[in-house]
Design brief:
The protein is built from 13 helices and eight strands. By secondary structure, the chain is an alpha/beta fold. The longest helix has 18 residues.
Length: 308
Amino acid sequence: MTQAISSAVSSAASSVNSSGNAPASPYGTLGPTSTPSARKPIGLPRLREMHAAGEKITMLTAYDATFAAVADAAGVECILVGDSLGMVCQGLTSTVGVTLEAMRHHTECVASGLRRSQATAWLIGDLPFGSYHESKEQALRSAVVLMQAGAHMVKLEGGGWTTDVVHFLVERGIPVCAHLGLTPQTVHALGGYRVQGKTDEAAARLKREASALQDAGAAMLVLEMVPEALATTLTQTLKNCPTIGIGAGSGCAGQVLVLHDMLGMNLGKMPKFVYNFMADAGSVRGAMETYVAAVKNGSFPVNSLHAW
């Protein structure tokens, strides 16, 4: 058995070398062994077409080149380099300690991974805590750092004062994804990881903020841990800004999960809104493909299990 495996590996390596397209490498040579993608690169026009047609948008986080390349090959439309890396990669207890330099580094890694694969996914970089709070000009400088690292869009949290920041960035050609509901960067002010928008007053505020962010030019809106009925209403109201839900029910225009969560790897308690797609998939790519299919056909999330 060992000899057969060794022979197969040697044959594959010879094929790669003789093609002249990729040098021998012990780490992830993708070149001629990867079939060309039939999918054109995802851009804002394509995402708007999907939204208008009612096709669900899929998003996963990724923090390094290999997982990004696999997600791209699995058909994930949007890859988010989330500041959740602070918790799943750095072992922090919240996202507050993540720096702009860390986000730049991981965004660059993910962008490099996409270039080594089929490079079709839309890449979003999180603006970390403290990198856009001081002024619109600070937000612009921080956004430029992530865009130059390879991001196609930046994401920031919160409503109200962030509306002017979104408008300022969009006017300067930087696509923005907004984020309402549970905003992890302000978890201490929110009193913990709790569902947001449960009262009439809180729901009305979320509606006002979502509408203002759309008017400011936000091209996407993540809704995290928002009651399913409210998230569905927001999705139906925001004609020009597709909602991406995480713990916000199936009525959103798309879904996002943290990569490590959907693969069943978590250092703490698994959130209610997560499903372990790795359990029956047999491979990481298989888990991602199952996730994409489940979001597309509406079988995930299940409101009675994964939403409030």
